[in-house]
Specification:
Structural class: alpha+beta
Number of strands: 8
Strand order of the largest sheet: 2-5-1-6-7-8
Order of helices and strands: EHEEEEHHEHEEH
Length: 152
């Protein structure tokens, strides 16, 4: 019997009441894992059927051949979305962005990602890093990273 290894997973979520997923589909060079306009039912990232409280669009690194390095997962989703944000904001001016990273290594700390990866992520939006095995969650903002870089 082979052991299943839990890989890291990064997610970028775009959201706004007026977000129509089909309006941004051609702007981002990756297919979303889940999407819905406000009020529509969809299968959420966790696989449960939900009704979207706001227009939403999720891109995840789940199932991508990115290895076990959390930084690679975060870089991949951030890289796919960040270059398209100017166009996305033209279509959905009030779009919000959430970035998250799930890591299954209880010794992991956000500083392990490196300054450039952290900065690119928080330029998009607040970054939430979750390490369930350690019972830890960090919410990292642009100001946090700038302060961290200032101390380095």
């Amino acid at each position: 019997m082979s052991e299943v290894i839990a890989r890291p997973m990064a997610t970028v979520r775009l959201f706004a009441d007026g977000l129509r997923p089909e309006a941004i589909a051609g702007l981002i060079d990756a297919a979303p894992e889940a999407w819905a306009a406000k009020g529509e039912a969809f299968s959420g990232v966790a696989g449960r059927a939900v009704v979207a409280r706001t227009g939403t669009w999720f891109l995840t690194s789940r199932g991508r051949e990115l290895g076990d390095d959390p930084g690679r997962h975060l870089e991949w989703v951030v890289g796919k979305v960040s270059g398209a944000m100017k166009g996305v904001r033209e279509v959905v001016p009030d779009v919000g962005v959430e970035v998250s990273l799930l890591v299954h290594d209880k010794g992991f700390r956000p500083g392990d990602l490196g300054a450039e990866v952290l900065l690119n992520a928080v330029i998009l939006g607040e970054l939430v890093v979750e390490v369930p095995e350690a019972g830890r969650e960090w919410r990292i903002t642009r100001e946090d990273v700038v302060g961290y870089l200032g101390r380095s």
